[in-house]
Amino acid sequence: MVAPAGVLSPASVSIPLADAAALPIVGLTAWQALFDHAELTAGQRVLINGAGGAVGGYAVQLAKNAHAHVIAAGPVRGADETIDHTATEVPSAVREPVDVVLNLAPVDPARLAGLLTVMRD
Question: CATH no. for residue 60?
Fold first, then answer.
């Protein structure tokens, strides 16, 4: 790969090179899910289930940067609302309908269907 030096950043010496190399993939996965597929825009409400993982953490940051209202299920900073998925069922904790549901957690089909019930009509 060839790129202008001005668009590159050195990898931190405190992070193993393999981990540093994976970071762009994680961010790109979150970006594609939110913007290329879900077409998230400013002012929309998004539920990110599994926000405590690597992709989820990036998804929260990207959605906030896009001026969306972020509801995060999982331990994460920066969301407008957080849900402790270990103490309550996620759908019952969502107070208002959302425009986008991004599921990043391993859930069975019944739980996925439950998450989708919080979508705006």
Answer: 3.40.50.720
Look up residue 53 and give its two tokens.
């993982």
CA distances from 13 to 16, 18, 20, 68 (A): 7, 12, 9, 34
Tokens coding 121: 């009509």
**Does a structural domain hold residue 12?**
no
Q: How many domains does the chain have?
A: 1
Q: Which residue type does 38 have?
A: A
Q: How many CA atoms lie within 13 A of 107 on its CB side?
A: 19
Antiparallel, parallel or unpaired: β 45-49 and 69-73: parallel
35-77 pLDDT, tens digit per residue, is: 999 999 999 999 999 999 999 999 999 999 999 999 999 999 9
d(CA 48, CA 44): 13
